[in-house]
Amino acid sequence: MLRSEANLRAMLDNSPYLSWLKDVEGRYIMVNKVFADYLRLDDARQAIGKSDLDLQRRRWRKNTVPMMPR
Q: Helix, strand, coil shares of the chain as percentages rounded to 5?
């Protein structure tokens, strides 16, 4: 890992705020634990390569109770 990347990771990991980096296509390339906890991810690496829509769908499914068919 490059020193600048290690420094960036250290800044994200030590931030008490939701922190993330995205690529030009809007996909996450790095998120911190606070962000992962907010989305109820088991590991921050689960967000890598995902878009906002991907993560919000996951969050919605995790928080929604399926309706019983009639």
A: 50, 10, 40
